[in-house]
Amino acid sequence: MHQALAILGPTASGKSSLALTLAQHHNGEIVSMDSALVYRGMDIGTAKPTRAEQALVPHHLIDLIEPAASYSAARFVRDCLGTCADIHARGKLPIITGGTMLYYKALVDGLDDLPESDLAIRATIEAQAAAQGWPHLHAELAKVDAPTAARLPTTDAQRISRALEVFRMTGKPLSAFFSERPRPELPFRLHALSLEPSDRSVLHARIAQRFDVMLAAGLLDELRALRQTHALTPELPAMRCVGYRQAWQYLEGEIDRDGLRETGLAATRQLAKRQLTWLKPMQEIERFDCLDPQVNRLVEHWLSERVLQALDNRTFSSENS
C-alpha cells in the first residue's frame, strides 16, 4: 500500500522547513494543507514558500485561486487525494503539511457537505456583532450549538459568524455536520506527526519575529496592490486571514502602526492556540517538541523506524530523487 506523511503543528513551529528537509532526503513532494496558501498574490502574509524553495522540491495546492474566490475543506480533500495519487504514480512520497486543522480532520475523518455561504445572512450577523459585540454572539451560539461554542474563543469572529450562519440557514448546528461515521478509507497509509512547543512563550517570540519580518518585507504594500487589482471586501475569507485582516484595518485608518503589530500578534497567538486545541485530542499522531534543537534528527529516527520500513526502498529513497 502507498504511504504518505503528514506534518502538523501550530503556526511558526517549523512545519515548512521540516517538510522541505524530509522531501529532499526521501524523494518527496510537498502538498500544502494551508487555507491561506491557496490564494494567488498573497505571498508575504502567508509565509508562502519562496521560488527557490519551490525549485528545490515540487509544492502542490498553492496559488490555486484569486483572493476574491473561496476554497472549502471538501475541495481540499478532493485536491489532496488527486495530488497524492499523482505523486505516488511518479514513485515519490507525498508530504502533506500545514496548519489548517479542519482540512486534516476532513481528510482523515470525513466531513459532511456544508451549505455555501449566504452573504445576506452573514451581513446581518456582522451588523449584529458591530452593535452587540462578538462575545454576545458567542453566547447566542452556545444556546444553539454548545459543542462548537465550547471550542471557540468569544472573540473568534470568523468561526462564530460561520457557525451562526449555518444554523440560521439550516436550523442545524454546525457540530451536527461533523456526524460520527466510520472513518473514510484513504487510498494510502497516512503517518502523522506534530511539531508542538514545550514552552509557548518561545513560540510566541517566534511568532513576533516572523510578523515583524512580514511587515518589513512589505505586507502592507502587498495588500494595497491586491486591493487595486481585485474586488475585495473585509468579509472575504482571504481577507480574514491573520495578518491581512489587521493590515486591512490599518489601511482603513481603524488602527495605527502599533495597533497593527499588537492586534496582528494577538490574532496569530490565538491561531496557534486554536491549532493546539485541535491537536490535543488526536491520538494517532506522533508528537515532537518543535523547540528541541535535535527535532529534525528525532523525526528522521522515527521516520526510519515507523515509515521507511513500510516503503519500498527501491521506490522511496534519496538515491532515486
* Unreliable residue stretches: 312-321
Report Rg: 20 Å
Structural class: alpha/beta
Terminal-residue CA separation: 20 Å
Characterise the protein shown here:
A six-stranded parallel β-sheet has the order 3-2-4-1-5-6, with helices on both faces. Helix 2 links the parallel strand 2 (28-32) and strand 3. 50% of the residues lie in helices and 9% in strands. By secondary structure, it is α/β, with parallel strands linked by helices. The protein has 13 helices and six strands. Helix 3 packs across helix 4 (101-109), helix 6 (134-144) crosses helix 8 (157-170) and helix 10 crosses helix 11 (244-251).
Descriptive keywords:
50% helix, 6 strands, alpha/beta, 321 residues, globular, six-stranded parallel sheet
Brief digest:
With 321 residues, this protein is of the alpha/beta class. It has helices spanning 15-25, 51-56, 73-89, 101-109, 119-132, 134-144, 146-150, 157-170, 200-217, 219-229, 244-251, 257-279, 295-307; strands at residues 3-8, 28-32, 59-60, 93-97, 189-196, 286-289. The protein is 50% helix and 9% strand.
Q: Topology of this protein?
A:
Layout: E1 3-8, H1 15-25, E2 28-32, H2 51-56, E3 59-60, H3 73-89, E4 93-97, H4 101-109, H5 119-132, H6 134-144, H7 146-150, H8 157-170, E5 189-196, H9 200-217, H10 219-229, H11 244-251, H12 257-279, E6 286-289, H13 295-307
Parallel strand pairs: 1-4, 1-5, 2-3, 2-4, 5-6
Helix pairs in contact: 3-4, 5-6, 5-8, 6-8, 9-12, 10-11, 11-12
